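Quick one, probably user error.
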């Protein structure tokens, strides 16, 4: 399902960036990208990405039935990482979870949007019906605004659910997108 890669996308500032699947040998580049994030940014991720062994394990033991990761590459460096996670069995196997991390120097340039669009297309090709993103209110405000333009809806706000490094509470926003499985589902007439 990742045969369209590598491909180039143009950022808001005119920079050309290559999108491609994460692959074995990317451990060091991915680790360096995560370490360009602030400690606060890393705190709100689900895993301690400052641990090289964790990154190495992710890359070397990728499960293509569970996780599809793409990276953005510029000048030989990974500048963003996006993952579509899914369960391949059970009551939630129709749901995909999306996570995106972008190097601070490339935020606000629509890189996350390009990657999200690719993951939406991938999810549709996989037959998924729903996508979920979990974002932190106040920290991810621009991203929340952006993904609303892609028909993600604010489904739930969990008040004071997440805590920052100092123990201050933050609201967790669960964003949800329903996917159309066929063109007929979106009201487009076939020629």
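Nope, works fine. Designed sequence:
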């Amino acid at each position: 399902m990742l045969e369209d890669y590598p491909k180039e996308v143009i950022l808001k500032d005119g920079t050309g960036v290559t999108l491609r699947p994460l692959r074995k040998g990317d451990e060091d580049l991915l680790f360096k990208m995560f370490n360009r994030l602030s400690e606060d940014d890393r705190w709100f991720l689900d895993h301690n990405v400052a641990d090289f062994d964790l990154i190495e394990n992710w890359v070397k033991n990728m499960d293509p039935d569970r996780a599809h990761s793409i990276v953005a590459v510029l000048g030989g460096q990974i500048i963003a990482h996006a993952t579509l996670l899914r369960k391949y069995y059970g009551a939630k196997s129709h749901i995909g979870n999306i996570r995106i991390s972008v190097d601070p120097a490339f935020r606000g340039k629509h890189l996350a949007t390009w990657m999200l669009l690719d993951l939406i297309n991938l999810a549709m090709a996989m037959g998924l019906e729903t996508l979920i993103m979990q974002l932190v209110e106040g920290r991810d405000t621009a991203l929340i605004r952006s993904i609303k333009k892609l028909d993600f809806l604010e489904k739930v706000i969990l008040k004071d659910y997440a805590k920052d490094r100092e123990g201050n509470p933050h609201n967790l926003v669960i964003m949800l997108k329903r996917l159309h499985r066929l063109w007929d589902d979106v009201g487009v007439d076939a020629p």
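The chain has one domain: 7-186.
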